[in-house]
Records
---
Amino acid sequence: MQAKNLSHSRLRTIIIMIVALLLMMAVGSAGAQGTVIAYGSPVFGTLSAEAPLGFFNFNGTAGDLITVRVIGTGGGLDPNVGLLSPTQVSLASNDNDLFSPGSSDASVSLRLPETGVYSLLVGGSNGTTGDFLLRVDAAAPSVSTALSPDTPTVVNIPLGAPSQSFSFNANPGGSTTLNLSTDSPGFGFTAVVRNGAGQIVAILGGDTLQSASLTIGAGSGVYEVAVSSSSPDTQGAVNISLGAGAAASTGQTSSAPPPPAATQEAVAPPPAQTGADPLAGIGANDACTVTPAGGNVNLRAGAGTNFPVQGQLFAGQTANPDGQTFGNDNFIWFRLPSTAWVRSDVVRQAGNCIGLPTVASPAAPAAPPPPPPPAATEETGAPPPPPTQAPPPQDNNQPPTEETQEPPPPTEETPPPNPTAPPDTGQYILEVDRDENTQFSEQVSSPEGDTTDQVFIRITGLQNTPPNSTREFSFTLVCSGSGTELLRWGTGGNLGTNGCGATSTRLFTNDSDTILFTIGFPPGSGPALVNYTIVINKIS
């Protein structure tokens, strides 16, 4: 009965927020209804049964990296917050603050996609009310240094220095591991990893941390890592390198198939490297730009090697894709404005490629018809008919043999079935040591196959007395594949509202050491095949 009441309370909160959003859209501008706030200025407010939502506006500039924090200050309020674009499109929402261990505060971090007036909706989770403090902070767009998979980078961090930013491209053909370490005595570092949209993927660090790593699943887009000292009173150096991701120790055997073998889409050997990098100077918030990873690469009429070649993208040339899709060969394909398609594993990427919209590929071309029989000529006459034999006597009591069965109907025109995740147990139990960072990977599909997984995660080694009586962990879902925008996940037995790239945090104690995540697709979702990884990091 308690779970039922909780569900009704969440439903009530969602309905109130939807009604409020509709009212705002009907006016045409939230500015007429919301209090205007400025970056860095705290605002105090109160939610009650009569006024269960707070409306606020702020002026944002494209590229600003903002952090919205809502802290409950009285009355038992468990706050949540939603961010709306200048056109009233929902951009992000949250009800757990990653930076407040043990609290129920709300936080949203995002790189603003456009200049305009943004709106904030502040509410109470599970119908709670009370007082709150709201603050929006912003950082101007920063210049990040590109990391190369083959070249380790050493970052020197002097006393009191601000964070230094670095960027790297995800690998569509396999996972990428970000490795960080320090040899400086008495020095600890913190690394905040964000995706192309500015959302936090993971936080690695601590006063005594000497090394850390994060594996990001196969996909496209640019990630950014900001490195700083864990304490302004210490200085040292951090070593950063990129490598191919190794299989994580999850305690479970994943049923996801291995990545497909690459087919040759490069049509010329890579030339000798001369001149400037064509992707140099392209920031994470700039338009997605691609260039051949080696020599010339094919441009095709659709998302697959079964489409005809329309041309080539030559070595050193760049192009700006306007969409992406998941091909039948299990690779991501970029659509260029000329309606030509290039496969993601044969190009290098820069800019906000992860934010490209998902678009449909043209229908696959039909198989060519069989050649006609040779025509008769004067010299050869008509070709002789094939010899025929009298059929053997038919025994009506015997089933037909392979020779007498009718051939199956042709299947050339039958569209291929949607790829699906193979059925599995659907439930997993993962035990994580109180001081361990790890990850768990699986695969789900829609509308058929393995549509939903439940993952029980238990934190082991917690004790009754400090310092090992509590631990806080963050859980981030990293996705690749087709239909990633349809995937939802949350805690408990029902799907939540979190999507791919979202992060949830939880404080664990000796008598509350387990969390359940449900990951899958809501009823009525379209075709999708998603490989997901739960990245598990200890915060404190």
---
Amino acid sequence: MRPSLTFSPDLGDAYNLFQTLQRVLAELVHHFPCETAYLAVRQGETFRLEAVWNANDEPGGYFNLGQTIILAPDRLSGELVETGQGQISVEPDEINALAPSGPLSPPFLACLAAPLRIGQRIIGLAVFFATHPDTFPNDSLPRVHELARHAAPLVENAVTLAEAERHLQRLALLNELAAAASASQDVESVARRVLRLLRRTFQTSRVGLFLLAPDGHTLQSYGEDRRRARKNNLTLDPGVGARVLDAGTPLRLETVNGNHLHTLWVPLKYRAQPVGVLGLETDSPPPFSLQDEQLLLVIASHLAGLIENVHLNEETRDRARNLTAIHHIVQQIVGLVDAAEIAQTTTALTAGQFECDLVLILMMSEADHTLIAEGVGGKLAGYVRLGEQYPLPPGEDMPEPLTSLARAGFLSGEGRMSIPLHAGEQILGMIHIFREDRFTENDRLVLESLAGVLSSVLLNARRYQQLQERIEAQKLAEKKMVEAARLAAIGEIAAGVAHELNNPLTTIAGFTELVLEDLFAEPRAQENLALVLQEARRARDVVRRLLDFSRQDESFKVPADINEILGEALALVHHLARASGVEIQYVPWDALPLIRMDRGQIKQVILNLVQNALHAMPRGGSLILQTTLEGRDDRDWVALRVLDTGEGIPVDLIPRIFEPFFTTKPPGQGTGLGLSISNHIVVEHEGFMEVESERGHGTCFTVWLPVVTL
């Protein structure tokens, strides 16, 4: 009987797979002297070198940890697994088949290989190489089988413990990932924490996380450590990133540039859709193992979900913040009724909330379909004038003033939105928003919601304005009706009073004239009677005016030239103006159209206005009479203006100047009927009168008479 071989490697302080297998291999080499040897652990259809021994103890040697031997049925590796028996070979092809790096230099001339078996399972290989063909005698096979039988359980236990350790590390790592995500508020902080974790776990400083940008094509780097040198931050070639994303599988790269660089890239997927790439790089042997790749895939899978959750949390916070801001904006504008104030408040608040360079609200004009700048906010607000009108652009072109700002380079940011403001099918306007950063989908939804609320508020403001105009028009109509009724009553009273006074006044004046003709001796009595006659005549003139005011006789209108009538009136007052020191300037419009008018009544209007102007300039001045042809309210009008340089009318009295019996003249110098009668005549001619006055600078009366087809 051959004595049993002693196999007792010292594993007392071995704490990982590499140390354990290295000591097991050293014990095996003690029994089989050689130049180099390795222990390889089976991983599917390959054997991975987990321990290497060199006779000269120099680093590097013939083999490197992490190299693999492919299990091929037609090669020695396949035969060892198939038979479960060791082999001694001196054939170069068979020897090189067990060398993971290919043909060796200098060539080995002998090889001893033994499978490590647990029951019927082959869990690894122990391979020894020598430079002399007689290094391994035939009795080496039974001895290596015996030693392999003792070594196999140690190797399996070490592998099992290593797998258990990796599993625990994986669980701990995933727990740390979850903790990192829960403690982070944004993707950037999650990325920084995860990359620090990967550096520690895989003992490499160069790591990288790249996520797809919103455009779905560009990969953006996250989590770069600014405190480290740039060379320690892993960069990603766009082509490599596209390969990983398209394939959806890990990618290993080896680069020789002074040092061997081993890079491992894995895709990040969320619900089977690629969302980014995670990478590791090292220049220290061994390269990344299959376990490293599997662990990185698990990390990438969990990381993709964590990042998506962070994205959702960010969107939720942004949406809550934006909705709060929209609620604040709506609170500020919902009670307003002025469209310009609503637009300006909205643009100012929106620009502040969304950090915009420009927020512009252009409202559609109902009259001429132009765009009016009603509200503007943001850093570029000073380049747009409120109330400015702009033509409607053709098609979907950008309107002014945005085209000018774009040409000047002010609107170069990525964020731009144009949202229509409409009520049903009616377009009210547009809100244009510009900023440096691209708008998120959440921003778009919130701003569109704001535009909907703004449209409703603006529409209500427009309806309120229309209602106010109708109310004002109704009040004016009611006031005119009351005024007409009052004037009718005054007219009836005035007619009665005038008739009652006219006859006595005529009698008084007539007999006073007769007495004056017969009375020569008493000068004082004659003077008193002359005063009586003067006052009687003045009273009779007042009565005549009352009669004119009370009469509602139908006027006789014929086509006439207002310039001609104006000339006749000026001939009557020319001497009075000269006596008053007033210079008259007559500026007629050439070729005015004929208009239907009562010549006498229009002449009376002109005389009343001129006499009032002369009375307003007791110390002389300038009087301008001007006629023009003008367009107003979609029709043609003849305008007659009477401008004086007199004292002017107090602002608070202007609304009353057309009232009967109201006058600004001193007592006894006016009846207050001239302007009232003039206004009545003009209204009867389907026209109207306007007055502008500035205290101390003069007054301008304008008579508007419509041009009608004769």
